[in-house]
Design goal:
Pfam families: G-alpha. G proteins are composed of 3 units; alpha, beta and gamma. The alpha chain contains the guanine nucleotide binding site. GO terms for molecular function: G protein-coupled receptor binding; G-protein beta/gamma-subunit complex binding; GTP binding; GTPase activity; metal ion binding. Keywords: GTP-binding, Lipoprotein, Magnesium, Metal-binding, Myristate, Nucleotide-binding, Palmitate, Transducer. The chain has about 210 residues and is an alpha/beta fold. It contains seven helices and five strands. The strands form two sheets. It has a three-stranded parallel beta sheet, sandwiched between helices. A two-stranded antiparallel ribbon has the order 1-2. The model has no long low-confidence stretch (mean pLDDT about 75).
């Protein structure tokens, strides 16, 4: 096999396919600059989410990392009306209405940015822009449907807006939300996570100190 040949270099595609999906709950603990950090990697099974909720300490700085597959924007749900992306929006709303989650910062990683762009460039997927139309300027949508031209930023903003509007519907939520568009081989992913967490903790600390 090619991978056992001398001088073989691991490709980005190899890295993606070598990952193991989360099927239950895994906890990782470590220290960073004398700060104790615990990461709970949780599957979407309700029992695991409930276990995570019950084990959140009162004085912890808690953050939820929600990873969203952007390329699911046009994949129809097998059981319900809408797409798999719509299901993710509804899941997020249920999660944020959880009493524990209301006290958590939210990090949304819009993953598979590369695959999302590929679909936008695919003629066969062009009509699927209908799923993003409510959040896209009419002129931009018309130009895309007729000529296939688009600015990536406008499409990313339209997809993100679906989640922003859903977050606004959550009552009694005053924690910050951070968004990042990424892909599986994003070398700056962890840097983005810790940067957002650090900013949120510093902001909360200042609010507790200043009158």
């Amino acid at each position: 096999m090619e991978v056992f040949q001398e001088g073989y270099k691991v490709s980005d595609n190899d890295k993606v396919h070598s990952r193991n999906p989360t099927v239950d709950m895994h906890t990782y603990r470590f220290k960073l600059n004398d700060t104790r950090i615990e990461i709970c990697d949780v599957d979407q099974i309700v029992d695991y989410l409930r276990h995570w909720s019950f084990n959140c300490g009162e004085h912890y700085h808690n953050f939820i990392l929600l990873v969203v597959s952007m390329s699911d924007y046009n994949i129809k749900h097998e059981e319900y009306e809408g797409t798999l992306l719509d299901e993710c929006v509804e899941y997020m709303k249920v999660l944020l209405n959880n009493k524990v989650a209301q006290n958590c910062g939210l990090l949304i990683f819009f993953n598979k940015k590369d695959r999302f762009k590929e679909k936008l460039q695919d003629l066969e997927c062009r009509d699927d822009i209908a799923y993003l139309m409510p959040h896209l300027a009419p002129q931009k949508a018309k130009e895309y449907l007729s000529k296939g031209k688009f600015e990536e930023k406008h499409m990313l903003d339209a997809l993100c807006k679906k989640f922003v509007d859903a977050i606004k519907e959550v009552k009694n939520r005053d924690k910050n939300t951070y968004c990042r568009f990424t892909c599986a081989i994003d070398s700056k992913m962890m840097e983005g996570i810790f940067g957002a967490i650090k900013e949120s903790i510093l902001e909360e600390s200042l609010l507790n100190i200043l009158p």
